[in-house]
Design brief:
CATH architecture of the largest domain: Sandwich
Helix content: under 10%
Radius of gyration: 46 Å
Shape: rod-shaped
Structural class: mainly beta
CATH topology of the largest domain: Immunoglobulin-like
Largest sheet: 6 strands, mixed
């Protein structure tokens, strides 16, 4: 009994340490037979990226095991058994079979050791296909196909075919990156945010064994986008605004500047537009491509400030760079008239102007009637009249008063 126990112990030790491997495989699963749960044979998966992948099996005995004979057989569907001879080796402790096609293999080991191994080999390549399904000016629809190989191993006792579980995952992407809604849920996704640049769309298909396949295609964009910048977007009247086109694939242009229904331009780069009347203006650009794709953009608010007139009551023309001139604070004035009188009623300064002259006006520098003679320190009386671009008239008691000149 003691010898029997020793023999059984050696058998289980040998079985536990001996092994069947498949060098270079990508995944290993095990057979499952409900009627024969004791059978757990390895299933070796090779990713068949090249389309010519073959398998390799190595049966090895543990160290100090006597050299044995290895006889390899392949599964036969016709015989429903491992009956197709593959290779024989004698007096070795390890045996390798290469260039194996898909199927089941069994190695019988005898002589120094008596055992057997069974394994299955499958070469796996998921199917991926990417193409353009449809496109319009507004969207791009992609056509994707994804599938995985189906593998069946056999119950060595009954010959029954059992399907090896496998499932498919996919992921759409593009280079450069662009928006693809639900890229891992929709095989045929479509985007209403189409790319404005040429991209390469790609679908990557992955199966349960980590094997990957990809398919891609080049997409030449036809889409348009209206875009422009405004400078400045706020200021006093008359406000000169420059518009810089930043559109994509525009061929026909229509600018609507918003200050009248006839205030438009069909130039790609319109000349600066002048807003005379204080208020808020909305500018719209509509473009059309050579393929008649249309897009528009609206800049909501260009602000032309209302007229203002603020008169100081003191100035110090001493050439220190601070408050050297009697200069009103003004905005959006169309016209202004300034008269300054001494206490005796003598006019010492006057200015009247509009347009460019008004823009260039720098105020009274404290000289008598624009001569080289300095006006004496003291109190001076002024009368100012002005009209704003919003037609506000400044000609009341508030525009008549005194200013103090200090030196």
């Amino acid at each position: 009994m003691r010898y029997l126990f020793l023999i059984l112990s050696m058998f289980f030790t040998l079985t536990a340490s001996a092994q069947l491997t498949a060098p270079g495989n990508n995944a290993v699963r095990y057979t499952v037979f409900i009627a024969n749960p004791e059978i757990r044979d390895p299933v070796f998966i090779y990713c068949n990226t090249s389309g010519t992948q073959k398998g390799t099996l190595v049966a090895s005995l543990p160290a100090a095991t006597p050299a044995s004979d290895f006889s390899w057989f392949r599964w036969s569907d016709a015989d429903k058994s491992f009956s197709i001879p593959v290779k024989n080796e004698t007096a070795v402790t390890s045996s390798t079979v290469t260039n194996l096609s898909e199927g089941g293999y069994r190695v019988l080991i005898s002589g120094g050791a008596d055992t057997s191994f069974t394994g299955w080999i499958f070469t796996d390549k998921p199917y991926a296909y990417a193409a353009l399904l449809n496109r319009t000016c507004d969207y791009v629809a992609l056509n994707g196909e994804a599938a995985v190989d189906t593998f069946f191993y056999k119950n060595p006792l009954s010959g029954t075919a059992i399907r090896l579980p496998n499932r498919v995952k996919f992921l759409w992407s593009s280079n450069p990156a662009s928006i693809i809604p639900f890229p891992d849920l929709e095989l045929d996704p479509q985007t209403f945010v189409p790319p404005l640049v040429d991209v390469t769309y790609k679908i990557q298909v992955t199966d349960s064994f980590g094997c990957v396949s990809e398919s891609s295609f080049f997409y030449e964009s036809i889409h348009v986008k209206a875009d422009f910048s405004v400078d400045p977007d706020k200021g006093e009247a008359p406000l000169e605004v420059s518009f810089t086109d930043k559109s994509v694939r525009g061929s026909v242009y229509k600018w609507e500047f918003g200050d009248s229904k006839d205030s438009i331009s069909v130039l790609k780069d319109p000349p600066p537009h002048i807003y005379y009347i204080p208020g808020e203006y909305s500018v719209k650009l509509t473009i059309e491509s050579d393929l008649h794709c249309i897009d528009s953009m609206r800049f909501e608010k260009i602000v032309v400030e209302p007229s203002e007139l603020d008169i100081p009551n003191v100035f110090t023309p001493n050439d220190d760079g601070l408050n050297d001139r009697f200069m009103v604070q003004k905005k959006s004035l169309k016209f202004i008239s300034v008269e300054v009188f001494s206490r005796s009623g003598k006019m010492v300064y006057n200015f009247s102007g509009e347009g460019e002259a008004l823009r260039d006006w720098e105020g009274w520098d404290g000289k008598v009637n624009k001569s080289s003679a300095d006006a004496s320190p003291g109190v001076y009386f002024y009368i100012i009249r002005a009209i704003g671009w919003d037609e506000v008239e400044y000609d009341s008691r508030e525009q008549r008063g005194f200013v103090y000149l200090y030196r």
